[in-house]
Structures are given as C-alpha cells and as structure tokens.
C-alpha cells in the first residue's frame, strides 16, 4: 500500500488542496527577479544557519545582567519551537514537500523553478523556517514590550511575517505549512518568555545569582553600554549574512538532489558528505528516503 496514503500529511494535502493552490497561484503571479532576492533575504531569518548563532548569542547574553532576560527568552523559545516542530510534529505528520507532490501542476512547477528551485531535506509540515522566525520574534517582542520599547518590539513580528511569506513565494512550503509554523512559533515564543519570567523570579531570590554580571569584570565593563548593544547588532548582522549569502546561489543545477525516483522524482536536497546519512549503493538520499531505505 502507498505509504503516502497512510500519513496525516496526505490528509492535509487533500483537505486543504484548493486553499493551498489558490495561495500558490497568487504568489506565482507576483514573482519577479527582484522579489525573489527579497524572499531569499527574509527566508534567511528562519534558516538554521541564523538560528544556531542566535542560540549561542542568547547563551552569552545570560552572563550579563542587562541582557539576561533577552537571552533566556530567546534560548528557551528556540528550544521549545525546535522540540515541537522537528521532534514531535514533523515526524508525526510526514507531509511531503510541495515540489515533490505538485510536480504535475504546471504553474506551480514553473514558479518553483523560477524562484530558484530551493530545497530542504526533511518533511514539510510545519514550516521550520516560519517556526524559527516566530519563536524568536514573539519572545523578543514580549521582552521589548515589557521593557517599554514598544516601537522596536513590532519590528520582530514584522520580520517573522515576511519570513513566513517568503517560504510560500519560494514554493518550498504549502501555505498551510507556514500557518502551522506561525502557530507553533507563537506558542514557543510565549513559552520562552514565561519560562524566562519564572527563571528570573528564581534568580531574583538569590542575591548572588541576581548580581552575577560579567560586565563587572574590568576588561568587559564596556559591554554594559552602547558598545555592548553595537556588538550584539554586529553579531546578528554577521549571522544573517552567514545565512543569506549561501541562499543566493542555492538551488538550480548545482544542487545534489535525492536519488529517490519511485513515486516521484524527489527534489529534496541530498545529505551529501554527511556521516549520519552515508550513500546507499553509491547514491545520495535526503533524510526522508535514507531513513525509509534503511528501515529507520
């Protein structure tokens, strides 16, 4: 029996087919070279290459009293979002990427190729990029809002919404994938914020922990002022460029695609030079089909 017929992802495909196709048609209709670059710019905010440095930045921020609440909210939001999306929901739903299931829909396929034919190596629902963007955005929104910095706070969800739209524009996610990613990301961001509140409350009960601050160290005192904020800005910008620049050349003929070609020609990115996913009979596969072939 066809494995796809047994998945929750297949049910979502059928139930929301007309909705997803209608949204895809809209984005295909506005596609042009300028917007494609803009979409790749915003999609970088949800990429693993951006999120991992943000986790590291968040951990560093824990050691400075002035930024501790930001670091805690950021780290826990990302941890919750990653757990929900990659560990729980994606393996449970098993939804195949649209560039695999909609290869016979001409307008979609032309739009996918026209947007650069980007690809991922895992399942589609929910969108991990959207989850990542919203978990960070909502956590930072709530912290900045609570600090009275309301104008800055709105920047974060605005960026997340643009990241969400970029995933549809690039045709790598169904619209329902990104809607689910938004919901999961919002939940993770709220969870991260309130976990931070609870930890900060516990820290506040200990004078030693509450006063722990690397900014008191002589050669790090400059971190407590505008210079520290400038360093954080530079780190975030550097992480963004680290994520964005490779996306500009991603996709197309140079991408090594999964060798699976049974029910469809898999356009997922193969796990090349990945010791966890070695070639099978000399062929490279994405995570999904490598696990299927290995019975995992």
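Sequence proposed for the structure above (296 residues):
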């Amino acid at each position: 029996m066809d494995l796809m017929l047994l998945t929750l992802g297949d049910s979502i495909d059928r139930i929301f087919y007309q909705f997803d196709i209608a949204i895809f048609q809209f984005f295909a209709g506005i596609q042009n070279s300028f917007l494609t670059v803009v979409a790749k710019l915003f999609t970088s905010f949800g990429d693993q290459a951006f999120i991992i440095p943000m986790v590291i930045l968040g951990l560093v921020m824990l050691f400075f009293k002035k930024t501790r609440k930001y670091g805690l909210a950021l780290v826990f939001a990302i941890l919750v979002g990653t757990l929900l999306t990659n560990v729980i929901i994606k393996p449970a739903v098993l939804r195949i990427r649209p560039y695999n299931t909609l290869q016979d829909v001409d307008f979609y396929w032309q739009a996918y190729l026209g947007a650069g034919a980007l690809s991922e190596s895992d399942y589609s629902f929910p969108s991990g990029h959207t989850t990542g963007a919203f978990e960070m955005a909502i956590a930072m929104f709530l912290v900045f809002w609570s600090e009275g910095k309301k104008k800055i706070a709105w920047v974060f969800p605005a960026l997340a919404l643009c990241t969400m739209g970029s995933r549809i524009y690039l045709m790598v996610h169904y619209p329902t994938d990104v809607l689910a990613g938004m919901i999961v990301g919002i939940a993770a961001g709220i969870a991260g914020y309130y976990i931070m509140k609870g930890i900060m409350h516990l820290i506040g009960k200990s004078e030693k922990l509450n006063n722990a601050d690397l900014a008191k160290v002589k050669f790090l005192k400059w971190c407590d002022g505008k210079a520290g904020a400038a360093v954080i800005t530079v780190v975030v910008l550097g992480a963004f460029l680290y994520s964005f620049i490779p996306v500009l050349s991603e996709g197309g003929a140079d991408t090594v695609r999964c060798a699976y070609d049974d029910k469809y020609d898999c356009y997922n990115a193969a796990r090349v030079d990945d010791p966890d996913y070695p070639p099978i009979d000399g062929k490279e596969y994405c995570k999904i089909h490598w696990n299927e072939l290995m019975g995992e």
